[in-house]
Amino acid sequence: MHRTLVLLALLTYSSAYAAPLRLAARENLEERANAMLALMTYSTTLDLTSSTLSIEEANTGNPDIIMSQLGGGDTISDEIPLYLEGSIAYSRYDPVFVSTNGAESRSIPTKWTGVSATGGIGWDFPIADEWVIRPILNIALGYMTSDVNAARWYIGREIDRDIEFLDNGHMSAAGGGAALMLDWERVRPDYEIDLELRYSYIYLQNVGSSKLVDGHAVGQTANLWARWRAPTGITLMQRPLRYVLEVSHSEYLGDQAGVLGFERLSTLGAGIEFDSSAYDIIITRTRLVLRHVMGDNVSGFSLGFAVSF
After folding, report:
1. Bigger pLDDT: 4 or 234?
2. Could you tell me which of 53, 71, 49, 67 has the C-alpha nearest to residue 16?
3. Contact 144/113 with Cβ under 8 angstroms?
4. Which CATH code is given to the segment(s) 5-308?
């Protein structure tokens, strides 16, 4: 039986690609709106390897983007194999826009803050002993707002454009999608194995914001995740203290592929798990995992925290 999981990971990457965004034509504006929505697809997909990202510009060391996700999933019971999942996410994006009139250009710093929420409902279909296949339907909502205060006057004078979505503007997004998961779970007294293979598809559309920009993005992610848990031989809180080993790999196949300079991420993790099921509290297990994250031109470490109910 699946247990509800809440995941919170803190990741730091270095040597990431960060290109300036240019504002010179409507086509470019729409491309950048699409890029922002592509970034949001990272937050609207349940994916351990990119649940939180902190990308730093290699030359200055200043953070250009921070994304954090809190989420989880649960099958109600073996008798009612209804699967529910959900997540909320926060992002902080500091791109550098470059405005130009053809003869000269000037950098315009901007800061965007985004929030998003995703929900999913699925059903477990047993295909073999300990194996289920799980189709999932998802919906997603997102909102990004700019805190630029002084850019509008300069941009309007130089390129004669009313950039609503830059100057104290906003971008709202809505969309939906689906996922298909193959899940294997084996529980034995001396070990536990979890294995998941998942493909996720999410479509996001810019809604209800600037009439000048119509953006959309498609996020597609293929993810393999595995976890091994076994007793350490130490008893704590009247239950065995377990060690945890994890591995995961994600391939980004949609519009988000390459938008941050990589198309895939992998993690290797090790940690410990505390079992509090002997006590009359809602939390049955608490897990801490240190992960090493690897990808094209990026690497770093994460500290993951999870609880089971």
Report:
1. 234
2. 53
3. yes
4. 2.40.128
Chain segment 159-218, per-residue pLDDT in tens? 444 455 554 567 789 999 999 999 999 999 899 999 999 999 999 998 875 554 677 899
CA distance 192 to 228: 6
Query: Which amino acid type is present at position 89?
Result: A
| Residue ranges covered by each domain of the chain | 5-308
Give the 3-state secondary structure of residue 34: helix
**8 Å CB contact between 122 and 85:** yes
Phi then psi dihedrals of residue 305, to 5 deg: -130, 130
* Residues 68 and 113: beta-carbon distance below 8 Å: no
Tokens representing 302 are: 């994460």
Q: Which of 74, 54, 52, 71 is nearest to 63 (CA)?
A: 54
Q: Under a CB-based contact definition with an 8 Å cutoff, are residues 89 and 140 in contact? A: no
